[in-house]
Amino acid sequence: MNKIHKVRLMAATACAAALIGVTACGSESGGKSGLDAMSAQQISDKAMQALRDAKSLRFKQDGFTQGQPVKMNLILDRQGSCAGQAGGAKGGSTDVIKLGDKVWMKPDHATWEEQIGATKAATIEGVTKGRYIHGPTSDPLLAGMANTCDLTKFQAAIKGADSSGDDMTKGKPTTVEGKKVVPLEGKSGKGDATTVYVASEGTPYPVKVVQVEGGKTTTTIITDYDKPVPTTTPSAAESIDIAELRKQLQGA
Prior knowledge:
Elements: H1 3-23, H2 40-53, E1 56-65, E2 68-77, E3 82-87, E4 93-99, E5 102-107, H3 109-116, H4 118-128, E6 132-136, H5 144-148, H6 151-159, E7 169-170, E8 174-176, E9 179-187, E10 193-199, E11 206-213, E12 216-223, E13 239-241, H7 242-251
Parallel strand pairs: 6-13
Antiparallel strand pairs: 1-2, 1-12, 2-3, 3-4, 4-5, 5-6, 7-9, 8-9, 9-10, 10-11, 11-12
Helix pairs in contact: 2-6, 3-4
């Protein structure tokens, strides 16, 4: 698998994980990182290794996966915890919090309507009353979050990709998210293109990925490397247990 396809795997994995959840940069040292003297291949190798070594990170993505719109902002770690929002095809958004084997999920009206239709959406919203749905990740309706929030699985997917390929070139240094970066640019024979912006100071983390595929653009910002996932969870008053939700829906 070449470097362009490897980066696509990064973004596609994140998008797919976000959609699963809807349906069922710190730790940097100062100084130069020495990228000026490296080839695009060497920089890409270092960036992928830095990504694989991260203990946690935040994905902010706006674009498409398998032709469907997706938008997400999610911080996740190797322990399977996460917090943030995942968006679906019609502009809806789901607030997500997961710590250990417990998950809290609050889809907005647009998401409910997209997933189960207007009538059922009104019924379930009448029961949830704006509260988070809370339960274990073993619950069939919440189990998808286990995959969404598992940074280790995401990193394993990247690690399993072949590191061969020399189809990326270095662009001119620039600034992204307030950080100095070196762009790695690549194009395929179909007119698709991928640009990876790698931090040129401190750890050479990927900071931004811009993909153009089939005429559609997906932008991914990767920040908050090694920062902890927030541990604040909704209170009992702000939540409804998944078992109680089922019970009330049966009587609705």
